Amino acid sequence: MPDVSERIAGLSERARRDYEEFEPPPDPPDEERAMEYLVEGVGDAVSLYIEVRTGEGIRLDDAEFALLERAFNDWLELYAACYGVDLEGSFTVREAAELVVETHSIREAALLLTHVPDRDRGRQRSVLD
Known about the structure:
64% helix, mainly alpha
């Protein structure tokens, strides 16, 4: 397995670059781009976290964990921004990992954490709502 520190540094750099280069969609949602941030960003961070937690003798120091969690939250913010939602990510990669294990879906985990997209967005409201 490649060095975990190097992998975290790579994820951190990629998240920073994605965040700096982000242009909000002119007509949200941009679901395709949201899924790219989710799968190729959030998913990679969560996957690495799960790998570290289940691996033998692999430990993250505080700085590595902070970098991983910041990258994870940056990508969640970009995911939400693709739906036109301003989100300040303060989620833990641990809670996301637990949701992925429970739901078997990074998309469902992101929805449960962020409430983006709003499940009722397309639903017609009745006078009883």
